[in-house]
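Why show two proteins at once? Because comparison is the fastest way to build intuition. When a single record is shown, students tend to memorize it. When two are placed side by side, the eye starts asking what differs. So, the first record is below.
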Amino acid sequence: MASFLSGSLAKALNDGFKGQSLPATLRKVETANSGGLDAFGDPLVPVATSYPCKGFTDAYSAFFKAGSGIPETDLKVCIFAASLASGIRPERDDKVYLGGAWYQIRQCDTDPATALWTCQAFACNAPED
């Protein structure tokens, strides 16, 4: 169920951080909806698509990491939902380029208004393709 605040709150949050958030790129690697096979039954080549967005990184507290079993190297990659194209959502194994570094997402959560995506992520190498 969508929140009655999802449009207005997401836009207000995005507008409020204008000039303070960092430009970012969400990179998704997807295969076609055909189950990943072409007409001859051969695997399709996954296609990488990049989506511009805005966000920032944040650290987990040592207390929270210890209590939740979060690896020491993980951090929060926060993406403003209103800065993403409509219908695009960060997901596990997507990569984000933010602040001059690449991060791979382990999991993503959002608030009830879907204004901010908070993703547990770790630093990774730049994609090769």
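Second record. Ask yourself what differs from the first in the token line.
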Amino acid sequence: MSDLTVTLTGAAAAKLRKLMAEEGYARAEDAVEGALDALDASRAPELDAWLRETIGARADAFAADPGRTMTPDQVREALFGKV
């Protein structure tokens, strides 16, 4: 696995420092990992299933037949009529 370096400034850096202090993290990496684990644990399984079954299937269908895709203008026209 490769490393990823992120630079936080301003409010984002302050939030990370606050999280580290409140939760007793010694390293920023541990605080970020904990936050990502909490986010992953809170994700609804229904969302994962919908993304996999509906969105994944549609992406596969478009990849197999690119002619089925629409331009942004075509989507606007389909949703709102002539733009």
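One difference worth noting in the second protein: The longest helix spans residues 45-64.
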